[in-house]
């Protein structure tokens, strides 16, 4: 299977679900030689190949071009099926990227599923909910950079594509597999391009997985990926950490740049249990990023002399975020540029720390922060190790010898960092 994801945490999200069924899942980073890596990795055990286009918040035309290129690279490997992976609340260039994949593949029809019940995402009559709350009334509706104000995903997608978009209602889903297949075929004959399917439970996803198991193209969040392997042929077990060697097996460096309340709670949980947290000077980061990275790295290195773990964070209360935007505006930086500058400084501080301390195990909280970390570390591709919580896997970068946990800002329980640290410290491998 070839998958195109619009950010690095989304790539890991779907990859972790597939790896949980024994799949060998490999992720290619944005900026890497996708064509060359696809050709190389196709010669190794690869059940799912994922390309991160990091295109969620690009202009639509730029996002479309990246998805077209990624799809062509995957086609060259002879993939039997394709997936355009989106955010579970449809942030980003969803319509442009769906159109790009289908157009490149020469397909005219696709069923999209945004629901991911295990992470609280459900869809009913096209309206999308997060933990039972209508999307615009959640933290995503209040996002200071990319607010989601439309509750209905059919209407939302319809504004992003010239093609027809229709809802597959929950009533049809609950009639069962045959009803879904019959309605799917009717809508394709009618010239509908996209069908947005409702789902509120894992049972709903199971029906959709069985009904759609033979599709060439899948669209939407990763929720369906947990159910599809059960209706596909089984695969042999795979060891993603074969050959791994650790110099400091217990040492973990973490960075948190997400403004989501889930990430804030995770940082607070870590700190409340004695974890050392160093906060980035955002004003300095915006004015002198190189100096800010160095100072933060020095704090982290000092901590690692006496502790196994350390966390570097950006201030993330609403008041602090607004203050950072005001400083950025005075420097001529827009909202997304402020976010990217902060993420970049955190990532560079982590890179300096890892290089000077010999750390091979790192955690990033937030999609932008995770992307910045992989760029700073020069990671071109990873293999998915295992899922630690719904939608939250670890990945191993074999060329660099790094074990990473790259976490979506809005996913995970409050104790997730404790889970991640325990997993990273216990990861099997030889002592270097």
Question: Would you give an account of this structure?
Answer:
The protein is an alpha/beta fold. It contains 15 helices and 20 strands. It folds into two domains: 229 residues, Putative sugar-binding, N-terminal domain (Rossmann fold); 175 residues, Four-carbon acid sugar kinase, nucleotide binding domain (Molybdenum Cofactor Biosythetic Enzyme, Chain A). The protein has a 15-stranded mixed beta sheet with strand order 9-10-5-11-4-1-3-2-17-18-19-16-13-15-14, with helices on both faces. It has a three-stranded antiparallel beta sheet with strand order 6-7-8, with no helix packed on it. Helix 2 links the parallel strand 2 and strand 3. This is Type III effector Hrp-dependent outers domain protein.
Which labels suit this protein?
20% strand; Rossmann fold; alpha/beta; 3-stranded antiparallel β-sheet; 2 domains; Molybdenum Cofactor Biosythetic Enzyme, Chain A; 432 residues
SSE diagram, text form:
Blueprint: E1 2-5, H1 8-19, E2 25-28, H2 34-41, E3 48-52, H3 60-75, E4 82-85, H4 94-105, E5 110-113, E6 121-124, E7 127-130, E8 133-134, H5 153-158, E9 165-168, H6 170-173, H7 177-189, E10 194-197, H8 202-212, E11 217-220, E12 245-246, E13 252-256, H9 261-272, E14 277-279, H10 282-287, H11 289-304, E15 309-313, H12 318-330, H13 335-357, E16 361-365, H14 367-377, E17 381-389, E18 392-397, E19 402-407, H15 416-426, E20 430-431
Parallel strand pairs: 1-3, 1-4, 2-3, 4-11, 5-10, 5-11, 9-10, 12-20, 13-15, 13-16, 14-15, 16-19
Antiparallel strand pairs: 2-17, 6-7, 7-8, 17-18, 18-19
Helix pairs in contact: 3-4, 7-8, 11-13, 13-14
Pfam families: NBD_C (PF17042), SBD_N (PF07005)
Family: Belongs to the four-carbon acid sugar kinase family.
Domain Four-carbon acid sugar kinase nucleotide binding: 253-417
